[in-house]
Task: structure prediction
Amino acid sequence: MTPRPIPPLDDTRSPDLAATTPAAGAEPDESTAPAAGPRPHPQLVFAAPRRGKPPVHWADLSVEERKAAVVALGLPAFRAQQLSRHWFVHSTADPADWTDIPAHRRQEIADALFPPLLEEVRSLTADAGTTVKTLWKLHDGSMVESVLMHYPASEGSAARTTVCVSSQAGCGMACPFCATGQGGLQRNLSAAEIVAQIVDANARLAAGQIPGATGRVGNIVFMGMGEPLANYATVIRAIRTLLADQPDGLGMSARGITVSTVGLVPGIDKLADEGLPVTLALSLHAPDDELRNDLVPINNRWRVAEAVDAAWRYARATKRRVSIEYALIRDVNDQAERADRLARELKKRGDWGWFHVNLIPLNPTPGSKWTASRRRDEQEFVRRLEAHGVPVTIRDTRGREIDGACGQLAATVR
Ligand code: SAH
Result:
């Protein structure tokens, strides 16, 4: 397999926001500002969106940029926090719900600052309504998916809701067992397109649409479509908004956020320096370069040892245990010797609890010759890892009947 081009690490997409500020002393007068037509107030001017780029949305902006944006519409700066509260806390961009905003300005604000980003094409449910996979159409027709999974309280663990989000439309990493990998990359998502997937899930929870679930989304896994570290700057921007205190963000905890990567080494090192103690998941899938070159083609650029070294550095820097993802594929990577080799590869960097292995029964993609491991091979793989003292879990297969298991998004719905 030939090495693939290295994806750009740093797309520094940020909203092309050029807001003019009102003249000093000019107090915005909301009561007289017309709802449409020529306005006396300075205008918020967004540079024309580049092809495929989604419109700039409230959730793309920093707190300061949000204030500038409302001021540019002729509103006092304190309106920014009210609008943030509607979007991030109450999960609504419907002007009819904005009862604390002057009625005659609401639609105009919504049009300027809350463009619709995700159009629901369809939602499929499984597990008695506690798993919901939603297919979204973006403004340019690209499709992405998110999966909401609610886990009721069980002995020892509280109820929680996890959302598996997409960070790109399509993916450029071309892993042959992954449905998304087959179609190539369409484009990076914007920060707001990422955050909106979670805001939508919070809205569903608040509306009582998920049986038995209350509260808000507590866990995010970047395991939907796309390679999050190939859309680095935007993913970081989205994560910072997830972590920001309410009402400026969703007020989530970094412990609840998992970024999963094929192993873009410079991206892992950069993430370790962000001071965001999110969990890192490394999609390893093979302990040897020969096989991993085929399963995860970026391995031709960053080898097993380099990817695992980077994961180890991440654990050392953040004190967060790294999750080593390993999809078990029948007769491809599920041999007992590979379990031994995997254990050795991980343990040779020290055994201080820096990793755990998460086995994923392969979710066969349509037309693929590969399938999940036999039960006995899976059990033997687990037994071998445990014999080496490697902590191991088997990922649950939530949503499998709706092809909603992570890594299996969008292929059957196009
Ligand atoms: N690009 C990132 C995140 C998206 S995929 C990454 O590769 O980590 C999320 C996880 O699902 C990855 O571990 C991926 O290898 C795995 N996955 C992809 N397709 C799968 C399939 N058909 N069955 C099981 N796991 C799969």
